[in-house]
Amino acid sequence: MRRCTLADLAAALGRLQLPRDHVYMVHSSLLRFGLIEGGLAGVMACLQRQLGEQATILMPAFSFAFGRTRQWDYHASKAETGALCEYFRKLPGTRRTLHPFHSLSVAGPLAARFQACDSLSSFGPGSPFALLHALGAINIGLGTELEGGATFLHHAEELARVPYRFYKDFPGERRGERGELLPPTCKMYVREIGDGHSYLNRWDHVWQDFLSDGLVRLQRLNGAKVFALDIPAAHARFSQRLAADPYYCAYRQSNPLLEPQA
User: Fold this and answer.
1) Within 10 Å of residue 163's Cβ, how many Cβ atoms?
2) Mapping DSSP to helix (H, G, I), strand (E, B) and coil, where does residue 52 land?
């Protein structure tokens, strides 16, 4: 198996020339780098050193099982978004936002502000993703592609009211940080599934357009991507393209047997 040192990871992050002590949304797929020296604790320490001790760091703690179980618990529901995300979620001092599908783990000076976001919708106004945009956060992908590594783009889709998505209610039991019952219904702006068809997102050409626009800071580590996007700039360019073509990042697929997905 390929191996990756923490020095290699630090060097790749350093070449992105990221500002210290900023707000960062971090997506990861660490297996693409191979076996990493120091494990998850080493990766987390490396991130903290590179981003700054006063950085506010967020990672997805998505719980897709809620669609099946309709049960979500602040403490017990795992982050189904990779080993680093689950490790980060369980660290002392990490907080969690409250949407049962698309919660985020967050640590740092602005953690309480993110946790206070009050939106029944995953990505809509008042959500943590809206706050990421408002604060000028930077999105980092560690080993991911744009798909699975830039969920803030769903916020732009929701603001644009793209025609291939609609709001769907998801009632269920949600329990907060103190074990308290939360309002039972949340909603998500899901992709359309019709009679014999559905819509799927397509991200490859979005990535290529971002590269052409000069919006991507990109490095390679063991052949996998390490990239950063300034959320407001990428959001604005993506929204412009959606305004010109509402189906810019979606296509219709015939005869799927799928449940609605983000």
Assistant:
1) 11
2) coil
Residue 193 lies in a domain: yes
Over residues 216-241, the pLDDT tens digits come to 999 999 999 999 999 999 999 999 99
Q: How far is CA 52 from the centre of its chain?
A: 20
Kindly report the backbone phi and psi dihedral angles of residue 133, in degrees, each rounded to the nearest multiple of 5, phi listed first.
-65, -45
Cα separation, 7 vs 256, whole angstroms: 45
**Residue 57 within a domain:** yes
Q: Quick check: is 260 in a domain?
A: no
Amino acid symbol at 247: Y
- In the chain, how many domains are there? 1
For residues 133 and 113, the answer to whether their CB atoms sit within 8 Å is no
CA 43 – CA 91 distance, rounded (Å): 13
Domain that holds residue 101: 3-254
Contact 121, 77 (CB under 8 A): no
Residue that is written with structure tokens 């916020």 in the block: 155
Residue partners of 132: CB distance under 8 A and separation at least 6: 23, 25, 58, 139, 152, 155, 231
Task: Please report how many Cα atoms fall inside a 13 Å half-sphere around the Cα of residue 44, on the Cβ side.
Answer: 19
pLDDT over 70 (residue 96)? yes
Task: Say if 261 falls within a structural domain.
Answer: no
pLDDT in tens, 129-155: 999 999 999 999 999 999 999 999 999
| Residue 256: per-residue pLDDT | 47
pLDDT in tens, 28-61: 999 999 999 999 999 999 999 999 999 999 999 9
pTM higher than 0.70: yes
